[in-house]
Amino acid sequence: MSGILLAVITAACWGSIILVSNKLGGDDNSQTFGTTIGALIFAGAVFLFVRPELSPLVWGAGLASGALWSLGQKNQFGAVKYLGVAKTTPLSTGLQLIGTSFFGIVVFNEWSTGVQITLGIIALVLIIAGAVMTSWGQKEGNDESKNLKKGLVTLLISTVGFVGYVVIINWLEIDGWSALLPQALGMVIGGTALTIKNKPFNKYAVRNLLTGLIWAAGNLTLLLSLPKIGVATSFSLSQTGIVISTLGGIFLLGEKTSKKQTILIITGCLLIIAGGVLIGFTKG
Predict the structure, then answer these.
(1) What is the dihedral of CA 204, 207, 208, 211, to 10 degrees?
(2) What are the two backbone dihedrals, phi and then psi, of residue 99, each rounded to the nearest 5 degrees?
């Protein structure tokens, strides 16, 4: 039960990240850079209190995981300019859930019984259906169709980064407390390498330190939940917070969507959440 609760805390933190960064302003470069620095500040503070053991394996895995995360986050921020917050979040979530579930099943053998496999397959169908519905209403003109294609390509790159960041830590069985600081350093290194040519050092990067602190809090609870309930379950539950950013994009940021698009987006979100929760039951 504690693992599920930790994953739900992650959902609340991560569900607000894109919404918060959008309100704070800046492009995907300054947002990514500011977020990584905020995460490093959080990780440094935690390290001073916990003082976990940092072996060469932990450093290597953490740095690689953090670098992959920066690839994922920069491209997720970048997809917003093509799709908007309300569409980027559920699509990104759906792709990540499919990716992490695949590794959870195939690599980590987390679904071994007939009931688990049946529930998992139904959950993945719901997730895919939800992801499709959130993008359905986009294909109404040449410009929107081009934006959809660019956004999807950007999100596919983002998914590779996000899935890799989670899988590496679980695959090598790295303790969450130990992974935090090396991972944050990897994020800063990766984020700097991806954004430095666009000069991300500005006031928006400073503002997005807050985004990094929020993300880091969610990351810690995710890392602690991984050994308790597994990759497929913990990551799936952690992504159910999309309702915060998706509905926030429509109703708080005032993103323009038709009535049809709004209905499809909300329905798609509900399907993705239902799929995420159903995956959670596979651990039972």
Answers:
(1) -150
(2) -65, -50
In a domain, 284, yes or no: no
The predicted structure's pLDDT at residue 161? 95
Residue 256 has pLDDT above 80, yes or no: no
Closest by CA position to 219, among listed 229, 203, 201, 234: 234
Cα separation, 80 vs 95, in Å, equals 15
Is 22 inside any structural domain? yes
Expressed as residue numbers, the domain containing 49 is: 1-279
Contact 159, 72 (CB under 8 A): yes
Identify whether 228 is part of a domain.
yes
Please say whether the dihedral angle defined by the alpha carbons of residues 20, 71, 162 and 35, taken in this order, is positive or negative. negative
Q: What is the DSSP letter of 84?
A: -
CB atoms within 10 A of CB 258: 10
Q: How far apart are CA 169 and CA 66, in angstroms?
A: 10
The per-residue pLDDT for 196 is 92
Total structural domains in the chain?
1
Indicate the SS3 state at residue 110. Answer: coil
Q: What is the pLDDT of residues 136-177, one digit of tens each?
A: 654 455 566 678 888 889 999 999 999 999 889 888 888 888
